[in-house]
């Protein structure tokens, strides 16, 4: 089969990097996890902390069997699929294979592309730069809004109104703006108790 066909079917995917670390953000903060970072993103967040991922052509196509075999080398059985924007790719075969091998499979996504794959936990981090697809809201287990500017609180509420009732709602300071914005986030969370705070703890720990 040609590479383009393997990619289309989700049997091989552009892999930027894969690493075993500690989930730094969100509901699973502190859990050991194997991260699969897929290449390619067309959302264009000005503050994106992984801009190198954007150009899909930079990253080699790797067969999903090889990705899963590598993940099995580590003791943890939690995998986080991230990117780039992972939903730019067909995620059905990779997620099925991971689950068949006993992994819990979590997703980090902006939701800007149609959904694919079978996940145990979906983190939706919506962006102003490219709106989420409507069908992601009911699938989100966690809504994680990056706060860069005070106007992002209203943006967060717009998306919170669309997710399911039991979706965990998180405000995460944009890393470079943390010193200015964290105080506002703390005040907001105290006044709006449905919101919790998520910090990028891996950056404090100096781990990937
Ligand atoms: C690099 S993104 C990859 C997954 C997907 N494209 C997305 O945006 O959800 C992983 C997570 O990091 C967050 N993130 C990216 N840059 C950040 C920054 N500078 N400060 C805080 N969070 C950031 C994103 O919002 C997302 O929740
Ligand atoms: N440790 C660690 N936790 C993370 N949680 C989400 C990440 C991501 O880039 O998607 C990430 C990451 O890059 N590293
Ligand atoms: S959607 Fe995610 S990977 Fe894409 S630019 Fe925004 S933060 Fe970066
Ligand atoms: Mg990251």
Automatic annotation (TrEMBL):
Asked whether the keyword Magnesium is assigned, the reply is yes
Q: Give the GO molecular function terms.
A: 4 iron, 4 sulfur cluster binding; carbon-nitrogen lyase activity; magnesium ion binding; S-adenosyl-L-methionine binding
Positions that bind S-adenosyl-L-methionine: 47-49, 84, 125-127
Residues that hold [4Fe-4S] cluster according to the record: 41, 45, 48
Query: Which EC numbers does the record give?
Result: 4.3.99.3
Q: InterPro entries from the entry? A: 7-CO-7-deazaguanine_synth-like, Aldolase_TIM, rSAM, rSAM_sf
Q: Report the pathway entry.
A: Purine metabolism; 7-cyano-7-deazaguanine biosynthesis
Co-factor binding comment: Binds 1 [4Fe-4S] cluster. The cluster is coordinated with 3 cysteines and an exchangeable S-adenosyl-L-methionine. Binds 1 S-adenosyl-L-methionine per subunit.
Residues of the Radical SAM core domain:
28-208
Q: Would the keyword Zinc be found if you checked this record's keyword annotation?
A: no
Cofactors: [4Fe-4S] cluster; Mg(2+); S-adenosyl-L-methionine
> What is the protein's known function?
Catalyzes the complex heterocyclic radical-mediated conversion of 6-carboxy-5,6,7,8-tetrahydropterin (CPH4) to 7-carboxy-7-deazaguanine (CDG), a step common to the biosynthetic pathways of all 7-deazapurine-containing compounds.
Q: What is this protein called?
A: 7-carboxy-7-deazaguanine synthase
Species of origin reads: Lunatimonas lonarensis
User: Taxonomically, what lineage is the organism?
Assistant: Bacteria, Pseudomonadati, Bacteroidota, Cytophagia, Cytophagales
């Amino acid at each position: 089969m040609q590479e383009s066909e393997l990619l289309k079917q989700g049997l091989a995917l552009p892999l930027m990097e894969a690493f075993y670390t500690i989930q730094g953000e969100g509901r699973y903060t502190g859990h050991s996890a194997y991260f699969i970072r897929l290449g390619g993103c067309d959302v264009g967040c000005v503050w994106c902390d992984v801009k190198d991922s954007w150009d899909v052509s930079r990253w080699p196509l790797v067969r999903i069997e090889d990705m899963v075999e590598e993940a099995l080398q580590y003791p943890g059985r939690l995998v986080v699929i991230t990117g780039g924007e992972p939903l730019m790719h067909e995620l059905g075969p990779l997620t099925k294979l991971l689950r068949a091998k006993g992994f819990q499979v979590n997703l980090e996504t902006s939701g800007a592309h149609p959904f694919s794959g079978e996940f145990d936990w979906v983190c939706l981090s919506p962006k102003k730069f490219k709106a989420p697809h409507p069908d992601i809201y009911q699938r989100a287990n966690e809504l994680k809004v990056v706060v860069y500017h005070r106007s992002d609180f209203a943006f967060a509420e717009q998306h919170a109104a669309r997710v399911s009732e039991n979706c965990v709602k998180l405000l995460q300071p944009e890393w470079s703006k943390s010193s200015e914005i964290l105080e506002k986030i703390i005040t907001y969370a105290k006044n709006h108790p449905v919101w919790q705070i998520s910090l990028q703890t891996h950056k404090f720990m100096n781990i990937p």
